[in-house]
Amino acid sequence: MDIVKDIKGFLSGLPGIVTGLFLNLRLRRIKKIVLFTIPFLLGIILLLGWMSARKVREVVIEDFNQQQLVLARHAASQIENSLDSLKRELSLLSLSPSIQYAEAVSLGKRMEIAFSRVKDEGVLEIRFIEYRNMKMYSVGNDGYRVMQSPHEDKEYMKWALPKKNQGNILMTDVVPLEYKNGLRKLIVRMVIPVWQVSVDEAHPLPTNKFSGALIFVIDATSLLDKITKGIKSGKTGYAWVMDNRGGFLYHPEKEFIGKNAFEARKEKKPTISFARINEIQKEMMLKGREGKSWYISGWHKGVEKEMKKLIAYAPIHLSDKDRDLIWSVAVVAPISEVEGAIHDIQIRQFLMEGIVILSILFGGLLIISMMLRWSSSLEKEVAEKTGELKRREYQYRSLVEHADDIIFTISPDGFVLNMNDYGCNFLKKTQEDILDKHLSYILPQETVELILKASGNVFRSNTSEQVTCSVTIDGKVFWLSINLSGLLDEWGNVYKVLGIGRDITERILLQEQMLHTEKLASMGTLAAGVAHEINNPLAVILGFTDLLLEKAPKDPEIIDMLKSIENQGFKAKRVVENLLSFARAEEQKRIDVDINKNIEEVLTVAGNNLLLNKIAINKMELEYPLPKVKGDPDELHQVFLNIINNAVHVMKGGGVLTIITRDVNDGRDVEIRIEDTGCGIPRQYRSRIFDPLFTTKEVGEGTGLGLSVSYGIVKKHGGTITFETKTKEV
Ligand SMILES: Nc1ncnc2c1ncn2[C@@H]1O[C@H](COP(=O)(O)OP(=O)(O)OP(=O)(O)O)[C@@H](O)[C@H]1O
Ligand SMILES: [Mg+2]
What we know:
alpha+beta, Beta-Lactamase, Helix Hairpins, 4 domains, 7-stranded antiparallel β-sheet, 5-stranded antiparallel β-sheet, 22 strands, 50% helix, disordered N terminus, binds adenosine-5'-triphosphate, binds magnesium ion
């Protein structure tokens, strides 16, 4: 109910609850945000961790392979240097006159000296083939020998002979050679043409003739072994060297040496696809390119399984004028080498991430648990306050609903916004009849004006106003005392007026009755005084009239006049007696009177009159048995007769006279109601009907003493006499 809500607004706890609810709403939002944010943050951290681990891995692999490339380059340049130094030795030797002129005595010595210098570089033998007789002078580990040149050396002679090749060095392809004691070696030859350009004592002038070819027979594997053997990439990585035809010149796994790299792998592990390394070898290494990449291998240093390996390769230029003879050195290591290295870094990184994630989780959970605790205490508080509010609301509701007052609110323009059930019942209307209706639909105009005037003051100055007004409900007038006060909004302005109206009809009637009683009492005193004063002269008049009637001559005219005086005197005496009986307080007779019987007796007397006036008597509601009343039956006769006479008077031409008797107050009192169907007592006379001498009857028809005498008798008997009336006018 809205009135209750309005009253609720005054409660001090309300803003606190509203704040509480608001906070709780915000708290729920924060909780939601935290619950969403934590997994989101964790997801991002994990993603970043994974990405960074990948990047680290990539960078480390790239770095590692770059280092392998440096190693490969270094190995290539060392091999080139080594070959260059051999070439220098060869050139130097070719300039020796003992060689050029094939001086049998010194030639061998000279070659031996040279051999001792180059044999550690992998040179197996130094040969000089004299063109003139195709004799071969050879120095090797077996010593110095002279013999007929072997067939293959004639090939080189062919190359050395043309003048254009003077000063050039030929590097031959690598060939396997059964070299002494069945040892198979990979042989590369370094050939230089020898021309007689130098001078010595025996040849003071150079002949400039072609002398022959000087050859270094080099064990390629042993040449490379010195350099590549020491190369270590990571923990287990190694180097291998391939010649221009794809043959392994050097490999830590000896079985590969001399074999074709493309075939050897397939032969060893036919199940593995070596496409990638084959491609690298073919497209990159054999074409003299350098680079780095990865490939799938099937073994590494005794471990036999499919694995990914990193490879870096660099070309070895065995520069030759006619053709660019290229070998290639590769440095390889399994990728697990690198992964092993980055494993530690990643573990550290994951540990860090774990700590961060745990901190976030822990922090998040801490925040959530704190919020939950806070929220539950808040909810408890809100629940308590809500309960309190509900209790108060219930109290106020029942206060408003059960109040015996009309409680309502009105808008500034006089529309009824709410009204409690009591108010609706009082006005004999439903909520629908009243709500949102203007006051003028509900109340009489003058009352509406009074209320609107007062409520206007309340809206203007927030004072409370008191209005006393009347409403007529079902033809009955009710008096209301209405207190009007303002209901304030949050800015302290009156936004509606609360009215509390109380039915004060009884109080007003009581007041009127008291006034009336007082008036009648004073009138009684007056009447008694007047009656007393009149009574004595009247007694004298009647006494003397009586005397005169006895003594006066028997003149009928005089007797008539005296009789008339006596009659009028007696009339006046009755009036005076009536007046006195109205005023007299003392009781004369006290016997048990049966009211029902008393009324029956009166009706017998009045019966004829009732019949004449076509008045029906409704006696059905006489209660039997009725407690006896202490009093004077004659006086009570007079009371009922007076009232019945009045009823007959207003029902001339027909009507119903209803007589009701009732036992009330547990047998202590008797109530008698005499109802007529006449015109009712007009408003202006209602306060005067008990006044002595008040009559609306024509002159001579009534004295106006009937009700006042009855009033006096009833009062003497300790009773009350009152009336209810309805007239057509309001
Ligand atoms: N039943 C009634 N219906 C309407 N008016 C009544 C009724 N009874 C009394 N009155 C009014 O009250 C007035 C006073 O009544 P009351 O009996 O005192 O005097 P009265 O009837 O006028 O004269 P009296 O009784 O002396 O013949 C009446 O004149 C009449 O106006
Ligand atoms: Mg009368």
